[in-house]
Amino acid sequence: MAARAPRYACVECGATHAKWSGRCDACGVWNSIVEDAGLAPGPAKSLGAARGRPVVLSDLSHAEPEPPRTLSGIAELDRVLGGGLVPASAVLVGGDPGIGKSTLLLQAAAAFARAGRGPAPIYVSGEEASAQIRMRAARLGLSDAPIRLAAETNLRDILTTLEAERPSVAIIDSIQTMWADHVESAPGSVAQVRAAAHELVSFAKRRGTAVILVGHVTKEGQIAGPRVVEHMVDTVLYFEGERGHQFRILRSVKNRFGPADEIGVFEMTGAGLAEVANPSTLFLSERGAASPGSVVFAGIEGTRPLLVEVQALVAPSVLGTPRRAVVGWDQGRLATVLAVLESRCGVGFAGLDVYLNIAGGLRISEPAADLAVAAALVSAREGIALPADLVVFGEISLSGALRPIAQGEARLREAAKLGFGGAYAPKGSKLPAASGLAMETVANLAGFIEKCFGPARSEPVKRVPGDG
Ligand code: TYD
Ligand code: MG
Question: What is the pLDDT of residues 236-255, one digit of tens each?
Answer without folding.
Answer: 999 988 777 788 999 999 99
